[in-house]
Design brief:
The protein has helices at 14-24, 37-42, 78-83, 85-90, 92-98, 104-109, 112-117, 125-131, 149-152, 227-233, 240-252, 264-285, 294-300, and strands at 7-10, 28-31, 50-53, 63-66, 69-73, 135-140, 143-148, 153-155, 158-159, 166-173, 180-186, 196-205, 208-217, 224-225. It is of the alpha+beta class. Bound molecules: flavin-adenine dinucleotide. Flavin-adenine dinucleotide (FAD) is lined by residues 29-37, 39, 74, 101-102, 106, 109-111, 113-115, 117-118, 123-125, 161, 166-167, 191, 193. The site of flavin-adenine dinucleotide has 30 residues, from β2, α2, α6, α7 and β10.
Length: 301
Amino acid sequence: MIPGNFSYYRAESKGQALQLLGRFGDDGRVLAGGHSLIPMMKLRLASPAHLIDITRVGELKGIAISGAQIEIGAMTTQRELIASNELAAACPIIRETAEQIADPQVRYCGTIGGNVGNGDPGNDLPALMQCLDATFVLEAASGTREVAARDFYQGPYVTALRRGEMLTKVRFAAPPAGHGHAYKKLKRKVGDYATAAAAVILEMSGGTVGKASIALTNVGPTPLYARDAVARITGTALGAADIGAAVQAAEAITSPAEDGRGSTDYRRKMAGVMVRRALIEAAGRAGDVKSGGGVFGWLRG
Ligand SMILES: Cc1cc2nc3c(=O)[nH]c(=O)nc-3n(C[C@H](O)[C@H](O)[C@H](O)COP(=O)(O)OP(=O)(O)OC[C@H]3O[C@@H](n4cnc5c(N)ncnc54)[C@H](O)[C@@H]3O)c2cc1C
């Protein structure tokens, strides 16, 4: 329970952090909220030789909303995501998801950059970012590039981040007014990681699904964007058969590990249950699903 030896640096600016990262390469790690990295160091699952603390770097913090465009600095805490009424008005699924992360103590320190940059399939924000089709801005001393959240995750704790790079912000377009959304998470107890979770965004038009997005947490080696499930409901009235087809398609892409949260089969089924519940809740919140059959007809039937 005691970490190995490491040198500690406190960066005062983004430029200084990037320089240090560039200098140390694979031996350096940034320290954000520390609520994943420090436990991993104590368990000796991570042993960085150099820790670069970025908690004082103000330019990595903040939420900027300009029209439909939203940018969130990597060092914005999960608590700050929840506290922003402006963000909740523009994109309510962020608050709904962040409120389901861990507990208030963790959320006061844990950052969006640490949560999505960590590469832990159990983290809740990566699937949310895939659902929102977010872009991650990755900076190194040598330059900046952008990677889609849907292309960022390669395996457990393996991401598209290259040596010397840091995630500096996430960027996405807010879904249009009237969209439906839901993040449904099954966990064993308050503060636990997901047994399975699903993020859904729905845009309904004339009683049918015009556009949809579905992503899954902790039921595979990475967060999973459920492309086939989206195809099963797009253009439909979201009746029982449509939802059933989406649930099946979502379950088909999962490969959850058997662990203390349940067997592979149980967790796969729970992924389907979370997708079903999230679709129904999102439809109920969407602008114009309230007439005729569709999901409400099915619920009544
Ligand atoms: C008891 C407990 C319960 C938890 N439950 C949940 C939960 O239910 N859901 C959930 O999502 N999370 C959960 N967490 C994790 C928590 O949300 C962490 O805060 C989060 O995973 C990491 O964010 P951090 O800012 O603490 O990052 P750190 O722990 O500082 O860093 C994590 C990793 O990301 C890297 N990193 C950090 N910032 C950047 C950056 N800007 N660019 C590139 N790499 C970066 C670090 O080098 C490190 O490898 C839990 C944690 C605890 C202790």
